[in-house]
Structure formats: C-alpha cells, structure tokens
C-alpha cells in the first residue's frame, strides 16, 4: 500500500488539488493556481539547476517572455490559447538556447552573472518597447476561450492550469528517466567523465537551457492567466529569487522538490501578511538556512526518512566521509 | 563645455562603479564567488550615514566614519553567520559549496533589502552633501564638490589598498590565501580570519561608495541592485583581479555610459552594465585591464 502511494505521488498531488478545488473560496483557489504555476516553473529550474547543475539566473526573464508572448498573442492578435501557450514556451526556449551558447564558453559562477545581465536586458526591453508591450503600464490579459467556452475567473482557470501542470510534471519525470536526463546528471557530476562516456556536452547543455526555458515560458503563460494584468515588474530579480527558493527549499534534483517548494513559498506570503519587507526577509532567511543546514531541501529530508521514495538521480547524501564527488575541473 | 561637464559626471560616476566593483573583486579573489549581497551593503552604508547625519545630527565626517566602520563590522558578521558555515561543509565538494555560497549571498541580499524596507521603504530620502558649497568652477566648468570628493576619495583609497596588499602583513596574508588556501593554512595563516577581514574590507568599500553616492542618487532600499550590476560590469572590465583594473573599468564604464545616455538615448544608461557584463565575459574573459595585474589581490 505504502509503495503504491509512494510510486504515484504525482497523481496523488494533482488529484488532491482537484479535490480541494471543490472546497476553496475564490482567493484560496487563486493561490492554488499560483502553486501550480510555480510547480511548472520550479520543475524547469530544477532540471537545469538540480539535474544539470548549471547556475541559470534568468528564469524570471524566461517567464516574462512566455507571459508577454502569450498575453500579446491572445490580446492583440486574437490567437487561441491552444496556439499562444506553446508559442510562449517555444519563444522562451529559443531565447533560452541562445543564452545556452554562452554557457559553453563561461562556466560556473560567471554563468550566473551572464544570465543575470541577460534578465536585466529582457526586463529593460519589455519596459521600453512600448509600442508592443505597453511599457511599464503592462498588458491586460483576456480570459481565454477554448472549445467555445470562456474560461473567466479563478475556478475555470484552475482547470487549464492543473492540466498543463500535470502534463509538464509528467514530462519532467520522463525527461529525468530518459537518456537525456541521465546525460544531465552525468554533466553535473563530472563534465569530463560525461564527455568520456560519449555524451555530447555542448549539445546537452544548450538543450538543458532550452528545455528549462520552455518550462518557464509555459509557466509564464499560465501565470498571465492567473493575473488579469501583467507588468514588467512581475518578472525581475525578485521573481528569479523566488524560483530559486522554491527549488532549494523544496529540494533540488528531486521531482517532489519543486512541488513542496511551491506550496510552501506560495502560502508563506499569506502568513507574512503580504508585506513585501517581511516576504523578502522570510524568503532570504529560508534560502540561507536551507543552503546551510539542508542543502537537499525538504524532499531530501523526507527521502532520508523513507517517507518519499528514493529517486535514482537525486543528489547524494552529503554526509558520507571521504566519498564526496571530486570537484569538476575549472575552466 | 558640455563635453567637459559630461566628462566630470562620467568620471565621478565611474569612480563609484570602480569602488563598488572593488568590493566585489576583493570577495571574488579570496573566495571565488560573486557577492550578490554587495549592492545591499552599499545601500546599508548610505542608510547608516543617513541615520547618523539626519536623525542623530552628528557631523558629516564622523557619520561617514561610523557608516564605514559599522558596515565593515556588519560584513564580518554576515560572513560569520551565513558564509562560514557553508565553507565548512567539506563534504559538498568545492563546486557545489561555491554554488551554495552564492545562493547564501542572494539570500542575504533580499533579507537586507527587506530589513531596510521596514523603516525606510515608504518613500525616497535625501542625504546631504559633504560640503555646503555645492559647486566650484574650474576653467569655466561648474563641477559639483561632491563629485570632486568622490574622485579624491577613490584615488586615495585605490593607492591605499594597493599599498596595503603590497606591504602590510595582513594584505600579504590575504594574497597568500587567495592564491592557495591550503598552502596558506600550511604556513600558519588562519584562513577563516582572513575571509572575515576580506569581507570587512569589501563591505567598508561598499559603504564608502554608498555614502559618497547617496547625495547624487536617492536613498531607497532598492538602490543597491542597480549599483551591483554596474559594479559587476566594472569588475568584469577589470578582469576580476586587480585593484587598478577595476577602477579603470569603472571609469571607462561611467564615461561611456554618460555619453551614450546623452547622445543616443537616456534609457541606454540602465542597460549598459548588463550588456558590458555579457560581452566582456563572452569575448574577453580576462577583462580589458586584467592582463596588467597591477596588484593581484
């Protein structure tokens, strides 16, 4: 029974959200939608940060690209969401791949700076390309019409969000278990060893960026649906930091991690009375405390306790003396 | 005439970027990480000086000193609280402990920003300038005294830090630790103390930049983020390794930025730093002035 539960946690989580959606008021439903949006983005960031081990600091920008592409396509050109959402993902993925090429030249922490600079440029571009994006005023997002039905309000939006989030989580699971996912892990653990085993490191890294950005783009599109209005301020450094908190607090390199992280970090602001100062202090302290005391996040803790199933490619327990993995060669 | 004015503004802005970049370079060369909390140390320096001058009514230069020493101590405290516990995780391996330290600095950055937002988040504030005379005219060009002070302090500080690394025992120990932490430990250097000292020095540099810059820009909890990017750009141009390199990088950045802002578009001012960061890291990873290595810190 227990193993049966453990092996179907993804399905259980999504079934749980559907069941809960019959009991919520509009505001809790909105929060639940946000949790699912962040599950999608968190899975994307987890693929690149947790599994491929690359420090991409631009998911706020990828999310912004997705949100704006989908909002502008549906609002200004009247394109159906069925086209606009994949287009948002693809647009973010193309940009992500372009940012992935620098990742081949600069390694490690320089990459953090390059991607941070890139996300500033994207935010600047959205702010100043007024004729298309509306500048700092933002864009209002119309309620999508699918199959002749208008999805207006938090409950109808939930059905779109939950279906997409489930599909993206299953896709993430499939990627992690595929040859590509194993290549990510191999590159994370040792780039040279990966190359020696015949993995095309350059191609895999660019692919990791593209896939991760695709997730953020789809997440951005979903995010625009949950908000009636998006502005460039939604997609800045603060947003990227939130994504990092989700993955680190939830547990990097674990499928359950981003789900746990999204639940905690979406509900935390409610506990903190929605004051920006308290939210920042809360997020920052959580990030610091988890990085110091529990680098594998809550999922890592639950896996050690046997509550969550052991995942094949999660980070190894860091407390084995003398068996730490060697530092990858710099350069 | 306009060109001379722009040049004076660009030069003094550039000195500020150089000072912010200097703090980043100090931490980078000792621990190998970009310190994302440095912009907030800059902000904290400005607010501490504001508290001393405006709220407590202390004289300007005493307040300046309080801000620099206070933020220096705060840098030391932050290193002890948030960075040292991670570098002690030997089992993580060098690469992942570096990522963990960077994440901790990101966490510190938003915590500090949140803390500053509680008392000061409601509006923008002004810090008075150092001198009551606002401008002096040199050769027909009116220059703000605050900008002259910035250039003077930066030059003195650059020389002082270069001498410190070349001559002072602590400076030599810092260089040794930066070059080879294990070797430094073997010859009896307490590397943890050296990291504390580095953070204190870097934070003090950030605070100096913050107090000097505050009269020119407005005081706000978010003021550090933009400055952090400009400091990164200066440090990248300088090759992340030398004291004079980062200063030259900052000045180049400040001058080019002000001319681009004046003659191309004002909005260019905000986008210049990230473009420089990306281009330099991609095409000249050693930096434009990195090869000189005037003082490897």
From TrEMBL, chain A:
Matches recorded under InterPro entries: ABC_transp_permease, LivM-like
Record keywords: Cell membrane, Membrane, Transmembrane, Transmembrane helix
Family matches, as PANTHER family: HIGH-AFFINITY BRANCHED-CHAIN AMINO ACID TRANSPORT SYSTEM PERMEASE, HIGH-AFFINITY BRANCHED-CHAIN AMINO ACID TRANSPORT SYSTEM PERMEASE PROTEIN LIVM
Recorded topology in the membrane: Multi-pass membrane protein
Record has Transmembrane helix as a keyword: yes
Transmembrane parts of this sequence: 31-49, 81-101, 157-176, 206-229, 241-269, 281-303
Subcellular location: Cell membrane
The protein's name: Branched-chain amino acid transport system permease protein
Main location: membrane
Gene source species: Ancylobacter vacuolatus
Keyword Chloroplast appears in the UniProt entry: no
TrEMBL record, chain B:
Subcellular location: Cell membrane
Superkingdom as given in the UniProt entry: Bacteria
KW Transmembrane (keyword) present: yes
Keyword line: Amino-acid transport, Cell membrane, Membrane, Transmembrane, Transmembrane helix, Transport
Species classification: Bacteria, Pseudomonadati, Pseudomonadota, Alphaproteobacteria, Hyphomicrobiales
Pfam families cross-referenced by the UniProt entry: BPD_transp_2
Protein known as: Branched-chain amino acid transport system permease protein
Membrane topology summary: Multi-pass membrane protein
Recorded family membership: Belongs to the binding-protein-dependent transport system permease family. LivHM subfamily.
Matching InterPro entries: ABC_transp_permease (IPR001851), BCAA_transport_permease (IPR052157)
């Amino acid at each position: 029974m227990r193993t049966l539960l453990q092996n179907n946690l993804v399905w259980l989580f999504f079934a749980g959200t559907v069941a809960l959606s019959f009991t919520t008021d509009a505001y809790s439903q909105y929060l639940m939608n946000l949790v699912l949006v962040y599950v999608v983005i968190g899975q994307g960031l987890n693929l690149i940060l947790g599994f491929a081990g690359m420090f991409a600091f631009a998911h706020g920008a990828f999310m912004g690209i997705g949100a704006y592409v989908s909002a502008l396509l549906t609002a200004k050109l009247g394109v159906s969401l069925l086209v606009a959402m994949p287009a948002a993902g693809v647009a973010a993925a193309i940009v992500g791949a372009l940012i992935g090429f620098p990742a081949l030249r600069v390694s490690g922490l320089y990459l953090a700076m390059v991607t941070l600079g890139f996300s500033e440029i994207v935010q600047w571009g959205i702010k100043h390309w007024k004729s298309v994006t509306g500048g700092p005023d933002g864009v209002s997002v119309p309620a999508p019409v699918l199959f002749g039905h208008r999805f207006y309000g938090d409950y109808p939006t939930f059905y779109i969000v939950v279906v997409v989030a489930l599909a993206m989580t299953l896709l993430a699971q499939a990627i992690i278990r595929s040859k590509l996912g194993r290549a990510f892990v191999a590159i994370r653990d040792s780039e040279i060893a990966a190359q020696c085993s015949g993995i095309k490191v350059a191609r895999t890294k660019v692919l990791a960026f593209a896939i991760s950005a695709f997730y953020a783009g789809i997440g951005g599109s979903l995010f625009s649906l949950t908000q009636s209005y998006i502005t460039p301020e939604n997609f800045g450094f603060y947003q990227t930091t939130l994504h990092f908190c989700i993955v680190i607090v939830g547990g990097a390199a674990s499928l359950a991690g981003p789900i746990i992280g999204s639940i905690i970090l979406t509900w935390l602001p409610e506990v903190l009375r929605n004051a920006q100062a308290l939210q920042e202090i809360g997020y920052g302290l959580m990030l610091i405390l988890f990085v110091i005391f529990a680098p594998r996040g809550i999922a890592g803790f639950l896996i050690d306790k046997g509550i969550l199933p052991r995942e094949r490619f999660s980070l190894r327990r860091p407390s084995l003396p003398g068996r730490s993995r060697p530092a990858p060669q710099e350069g | 005439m306009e060109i001379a004015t722009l040049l004076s503004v660009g030069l003094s802005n550039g000195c500020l970027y150089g000072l912010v970049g200097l703090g980043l370079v100090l931490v980078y060369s000792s621990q190998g990480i970009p310190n994302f909390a440095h912009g907030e140390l800059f902000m904290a320096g400005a607010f501490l000086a504001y508290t001393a001058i405006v709220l407590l009514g202390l004289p300007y230069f005493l307040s300046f000193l309080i801000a620099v020493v206070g933020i220096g101590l705060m840098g030391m405290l932050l290193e002890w609280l948030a960075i040292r516990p991670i570098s002690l995780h030997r089992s993580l391996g060098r690469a992942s402990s570096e990522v963990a330290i960077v994440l901790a600095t990101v966490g510190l950055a938003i915590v500090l920003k949140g803390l500053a937002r509680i008392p000061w988040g409601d509006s923008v504030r002004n810090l008075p300038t150092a001198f009551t005379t606002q401008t002096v005219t040199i050769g027909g060009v009116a220059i703000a005294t605050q900008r002259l002070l910035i250039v003077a302090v930066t030059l003195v500080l650059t020389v002082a830090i270069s001498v410190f690394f070349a001559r002072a025992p602590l400076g030599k120990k810092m260089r040794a630790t930066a070059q080879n932490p294990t070797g430094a430990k073997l010859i009896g250097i307490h590397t943890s103390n050296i990291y504390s000292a580095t953070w204190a020095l870097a934070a003090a540099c950030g605070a100096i930049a913050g107090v000097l810059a505050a009269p020119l820009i407005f005081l706000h909890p978010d003021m550090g983020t933009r400055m952090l990017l400009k400091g990164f750009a200066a440090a990248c141009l300088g090759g992340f390794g030398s004291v004079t390199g980062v200063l030259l990088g900052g000045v180049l950045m400040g001058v080019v930025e002000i001319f681009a802002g004046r003659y191309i578009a004002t909005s260019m001012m905000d986008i210049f730093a990230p473009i420089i960061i990306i281009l330099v890291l991609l095409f000249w990873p050693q930096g434009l002035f990195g090869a000189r290595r005037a003082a490897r810190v």
